[in-house]
Structure formats: structure tokens, C-alpha cells
Amino acid sequence: MGAVQGQGYIGQALGVADVLAVSYFHAMRYEANDPRWEDRDRFLLSIGHYAIALYAALIEAGILPEDELETYGTDGSRLPMSGMAAYTPGMEITGGSLGHGLGIGVGMALGLKRKASDARVFTLLSDGELGEGATWEAALSAAHHRLDNLIGVVDFNNQQADGPSTEMLSAEPVADKWAAFGWHVQRVDGNDIAALVNAFDAARQHPGERPRVIVCDTRMCKGVPFLETREVTHFVRVAPEEWDKALEALDAGRPQS
Amino acid sequence: MSAPGKKRLTTSAMIASIAEDGQETTAAPFGHALVALARERPEIVGLSADLSKYTDLHVFAQAMPDRFYQMGMAEQVLIGAAAGLAREGFQPFATTYAVFASRRAYDFMAMDIAEESLNVKIVCALPGLTTGYGPSHQATDDLAIFRAMPNLTIVDPCDAVDIEQAVPAIADHKGPVYMRLLRGQVPRVLHRYDYRFELGKAALLRDGADVLFVSTGLMTMRVLAAAERMAAEGIADAGVLHVPTIKPLDTDTILAALAKSGRLVVTAENHSIVGGLGEAVAGAALRGGVGPAGFRMIGLPDAFLDAGALPTLHDRYGLSVDAVVAQVKGWL
What we know:
Chain B: It comes from Roseospira navarrensis. The complex is a heterodimer. Chain A is of the alpha/beta class.
């Protein structure tokens, strides 16, 4: 997808890929052939620009056809560069105006409880979104309403448009903040599959009537060493000849099956 | 107008009645209409951001406590959560003050609700100049702000009759609606006319040969009274076209009324003259090739308004019956 445009939010996508893999292939319940299945767990992409990563997950999950990949970001595509609910099966909300996802998640979690559904709402947000006041309104609200069916997943890659998140508007100590807001908190290496599996299990199984959050420390451009070290990683530009090198690096990093 | 001997209010209260002395009123028409509707429709839920008592939603909260969500003083999550509840199949009625929905929660109205055309009704008290508190609470710009929002239907009811009939009508509409709300003891006027609220429709309440008022919200009751007085005093024969739905605008009915030749057209709204009904009607008339004999706008000035007692402010800014009559006299 990135190669189609020659650029994009591939740093974030590679960094969060492990989180999405564990979400879609371990933690969540869904029917690939029925993205609106009533009993599905809802996955809200608050960070709309991460759509490139979610499309890949939706394709791997069988919700989107693989041959649509190459339409990413082009006119008429169902895969716009920023995720929008009306465009894409499996895209629950229109994200992108940052700080919205968790509030919508509060409403969906309230609605699921009204319906006595045991489905959960997963909301993927970013460390940058912790600067948005609306995120904290939603955090207060979720705890106040005892939304134990809401799981926040924070991609903490410490990178924003203008530089490292902790130098823009630091949310640290981030785990303490969520705990003070009344959430069950875990902070894990977001590129460690085993740690993520354990964290998602613990989040689902925690018995308390509290919303849960997993802060995932991730590395931008994870799996492509020559990109991981590139200075500007918020919106990565990759030269045409570099795409094959990147794919080779990713293939080399695949776990042996 | 004040009854003789009765002292007129002169304090800048937050909650001020728009009812004039001796005017027939109904208590909390929105709250009672919503309860009646919600008894038949289990999907209706109510939300407020710490203002249920001041939006009449407390009537619903008391009648159906398990269907009411107190969201606290957090308008962004009020709107976001309403969107989430709508996504799960419920029909939320969310209330706050008009200033907070339009100014603070705008992005959440736009992206969480309107962009997806979700079935959420935002019902907001203190529209235009209906509080003496000053600019922090006077939503003189909400219509201008929301008219540019795609998918959003905008309703500005005149009185208790309008509100009672608008509640089921906006609930029947599948999509987002912003309704301005008169709350508390709300005047009851429109039952004296052959009128029913229809979403998207303007209604001619009285005809007149010299002047046509095109009005919305509480200004419809003011121009009705002004028209009666102008007739009684032989000033002019004035008609009143009530436009409770600001968007989509009923241009067919409005242009047909404007096309009747020889009349001065006067728009009247409880809103800034910038971006409200008056400019919407003017734009529709120009696009439709209809040029009335004259065109004037009654509305609030393009300014942050004073604090003060509501009757004082309505006189000062041209919304009282006296002020309407005086303005029209000057234009004839």
C-alpha cells in the first residue's frame, strides 16, 4: 500500500502491526464474512491515519480482499488514507480528528451494556492523542460508568508530527495517569507478541468493574532496520528502490513456522 | 409588555422567562413530550452534560431513570457517547446549552455524528438571546455555525405547541437534528392558528398585503403580536410566515410567499443577522430570481451582547414587540 503512494504512515503501521496482530488473531471475536455481526467485538481506530495498518489486518482477517490493497489512497478506493466508516467494511468509526475514538467507545460500551451484550469495545489511540482533552473526558466517563467492556490500547511510539511526543506535550507518567483516572492499567513492550498476548488476556479477564487500558511501547518502522533509524518517521518517505529492501527485511524477520 | 403596576425584572439572571405577563404557558413541554414518545419507543435514551434541569430533560430522567445518562460537565464526550449509543441502535436525545454544543463540541458534532448521519437529536437550551448572562451563555451564533454542517437538520421552534409537535417529528427523521429549545414555562401561542409542525415546512400563519414577516423561533410569537398591533393601529397589514426548520429550508414555500408583489419582506430571528434565517432567505431569493419590494432583517447585531435583564435586552437589541413595530414603522 505504501509503495502505491511512495510514502505514508508506514512507520506507525509497522510499529503497531504486532498490536493489531494480537487484537485480530488472539483477543477479538468477529465473523470475517459479516463485519456488522451483532456479537462482534468492536475495534475503533481513533487514529485514522493508521488506516494503512488496519487495512492490512482486515485483509489478513479475511474481512477485505487482498487484491484491493493496491487501490490504497487512490481515487474511488474503499481504502482512503485516513480511515472512514462509510468507506471500508470493518472500519467502525471515522477517526482522524484525534481525540474522538475513546468518547465514541464510551457510548458504544454503554450501548452494549444496555443490550446485555458481552461484546467488547477496543479503541486504538496514540500517545499523541493523550494531548487531546477529549481523551481525558472520555477516560473520566468510562471509569464513572464502570465500563469494564471497554479496552483502550495506546500506541506509545513517542513520535508526533513535530517530534517526540514526550517533548511536545508529555503524558508521562502515563500509566499513573490512567490509574488515577480509575482504569486497570498495563504497560508492555508493544513489539513483544508474548507480552501483548498476556496483556490482552489480563485486560479481558480482569474481574473489576473498570475500563482497561494497555499502553504499548512500540518502535516506529519496526522490522525494517534502515527505516527504524531514519530521523523523520512520522510521515516516512521511502525511495522506490527501498520498498523491496524493506520487504526483504520484514521477511527475514518473520518467525520460523 | 408589563402589566400596569407590576415591576419589570431588571436583573441579569441566567434563567429568564421569555413569557410576557399574562401569556399562557406550558411547563417543560420538551421533557413531557419526550417522555410520552419514549413510552412507545424503547430505543430512545437521554443524555445531558450537567444541565438536565435546565433543558427540561430532568422530566425524562425522573420518569425513566434507567434510560438517562448523566455525562457530567463534559460536552465532547456527551456528543461522542451519543454517537456511540446511536451506533449501537439507540436514539439518543442529548441536551446542553446551545453555546456549548455549537462552540465547544462542534468537531464532535461534525465528525462523530453528522459525517455518519447518525440518528442523534441534539436539543439545546438558551438559544440566541434568551439569558441575561452575557456572551458566555448567549448562543447568538449557533445557527450560523450549524448551517454549514452537512447532513444536519436544524429546528428553531416558536413555542410549547411547536416543541410538543416537533419532538415526535424529529424522532421520526432518521438522521442528526439540532433543535433549539425554549425551556421552563414556555409560552403557548400557535394553537390559536391553523398550524401543525411539519419538519422541513414553513407555514403561513396570517396573510397581509403590506408586510410579510418571515420568522423563526420565538420571534414568530413576537411578530405575530406586532402584526396584530400594527393592524389595530392602522400601521400596516402584515402577514407571518413561520419557518421552524432552518435547514433544509422550505425554499418553495418561502419563494412563493416572497413573490407576492408589493410587500416589504422582514425576516425575524433570535440570532445574529450573520448567517441565520435572514441571510438564508436572502440567498434563496437571489438564487430563485425573486425580488420583493423591500427586504429587511430583524436579528441580533454582529456583536457580543450585553448582560442584563431579558426584557431590557430584547428592547435594546430589537427583539421585543415594541422594537419590532418601531423598526417596521421606520421602514415603511
